[in-house]
Amino acid sequence: MGLLHISHTLWMLSFIGLCALHCCSAAIEEHQTPIARLFVNASDTSPCPIPDTLFGIFFEEINHAGAGGLWAELVSNRGFEAGGQNIPSNIYPWSVIGDESMLIVATDRSSCFDRNKIALQMNVLCNNGGPNACPAEGVGIYNPGFWGMNIVEGKMYKLVLYVRSLGPIDVLVSLTDSQGVQKLATANIMTSGVKWTKVEILLKAKGSNYNSRLQLTTRRKGVVWFDQVSLTPLDTYKGHGFRNDLFQMIKDLKPGFLRFPGGCFVEGDWLMNAFRWKETVGPWEERPGHFGDVWKYWTDDGFGHYEFLQLAEDLGTVPIWVFNNGISHNDEVNTSVILPFVQEILDGLEFARGHPKSRWGSLRAAMGHPAPFNLKYVAIGNEDCEKFNYRGNYLKFYDAIRQAYPDIKMISNCDASRAPLDHPADLYDYHIYSDAKTMFEKSNYFDKAPRNGPKAFVSEYAVTTADDAGTGTLLAAIAEAGFAIGLEKNSDLVNMASYAPLYVHVNDRRWNPDAIVFNASHAYGTPSYWMQHFFKDSNGATLLSTSLQTDLTDRLVASAIMWQNPVNMNTYLRIKVQQLPQNRV
Ligand SMILES: *[C@@H]1O[C@H](CO)[C@@H](O)[C@H](O)[C@H]1NC(C)=O
Ligand SMILES: *[C@@H]1O[C@H](CO)[C@@H](O)[C@H](O)[C@H]1NC(C)=O
Ligand SMILES: *[C@@H]1O[C@H](CO)[C@@H](O)[C@H](O)[C@H]1NC(C)=O
């Protein structure tokens, strides 16, 4: 429908029965009594451009969303570091092939990398033939990835590892099925040297298996050390390391922003386990990794600060960096000693935006991105408003950032939807997790919020009660759509909103429900994912004036937008009407 055809028009749509989610063409049957009439005044558009940022996405490292998910690294715990820097370290999910009469596997602190000293030592006792012969398939270690590696015939995989030994070594690298029987790709490492050597091998898969593993085996007696064993498919989005199918699913949502990397992941249960950006940049081999103690898993932090900024750029969207403000779930840094933490964040901003010759900007440039990233928003903490040091710490961060980067918009954790804030902010954070009925009824929540303060950022919303939401239901999606229609109508105030969480690996359901469910090889969207598709053209559209005449005021919401398709430049009208069902759908 072209713009010319619909200007200066008033529509009246009457609804007799109501359909879920995409009800744009309800029948008009004059002889029945309609339960609702929707008036859309297309002339009255002047005050209501919808922000380009309204509907975006929130990526948190939860449920293995990144490690084992969007981040395409196939090896889990590639540095044998999952137990931290102490020995013996936790090498899970690496396992040993062979018994203790044939080899002894241990961890020590002999790595060539200063920030991650743990290496794996393999003392091979059996030999190639003779009385103490190794089994024909050799002995060694294997890594099943994140509940199986998806190896696809014809695709190329890059293996990188660091190795040293006391004598000549002959190690077979193989990609196999989950039992180590079917060989999908193999290569030999023949070297010797007491010094650490980097080995890089391209493997081409000659078969496919969703549930593969990586093996390092040998039949030669001797001592060999491994560290930083990485396997990545060459085929990732633009070669940037993002798993293609999972990337495409979020790209399809046309997100208006990307909030990252948490969530509670940013806070940590304890500060020592919070996300610290400096430990996630530079060469991947040198990153220490960390244990995310809120969602209870180790990340090698290959998906770090740089990669998040790159992800936002690849999605064509605006990054929103949520940083730790010196507060975790259980401990806090007092305001009197917060300054080093403030400096850490200023450095992180310089990394993102600084001149390529600046201290931290030069590291970004060295990593492959001399041009600054388009970082214009930061959130000072996550859900910390009620914490003892929040206001004190907040102001230290706020003042320093305002001075160094006057254009950066700052987001407070404190809710200003009913009472004004006692501190300056550009936006305030609002989170809602509820049952379906409450979510739907909150569609008019922001009608009553003050317009003279900071803008609102609904950075986490979802129906979460088990009865209504399960692991993803149509009822939850309908209630969320009703709520989101309310956000659209209040988008003079609500400038950003994102559903949470985005991803879940089927083998690590820390949180239900989620938008995108995946395993190593497959992915699908829950109804709450598809709900977001109904709003993907709202960013930058024009909100039309609507009025709904109905007795079902608490069960029916509607909005109308005019949006332009950037491909054919046509202008379209989209009317969304949402009714909360009486029963679970
Ligand atoms: C539609 O909006 C225009 C512009 O605000 C206004 O002049 C007109 O009266 C409205 N029409 C109706 C039927 O409300
Ligand atoms: C991943 O999910 C698909 C589809 O349900 C299934 O066929 C496949 O076996 C799963 N992969 C693993 C490793 O379990
Ligand atoms: C932080 O402040 C609290 C309360 O004033 C105090 O008990 C604690 O000792 C302080 N901690 C540090 C590290 O300064």
From TrEMBL:
Keywords: Extracellular matrix, Glycoprotein, Hydrolase, Secreted, Signal. InterPro entries: Alpha-L-AF_C, ASD1_cat, GH, Glycosyl_Hydrolase_51. It holds the Pfam family ASD1_dom. It is found in: Secreted, Extracellular space, Extracellular matrix. Residues 459-585 form the Alpha-L-arabinofuranosidase C-terminal domain. Its EC number is 3.2.1.55. This is non-reducing end alpha-L-arabinofuranosidase. It comes from Lithospermum erythrorhizon. It catalyses: Hydrolysis of terminal non-reducing alpha-L-arabinofuranoside residues in alpha-L-arabinosides. It comes from the Eukaryota. Residues 1-26 form the signal peptide. PANTHER family: ALPHA-L-ARABINOFURANOSIDASE 1. GO terms for biological process: L-arabinose metabolic process. Belongs to the glycosyl hydrolase 51 family. GO terms for molecular function: alpha-L-arabinofuranosidase activity.
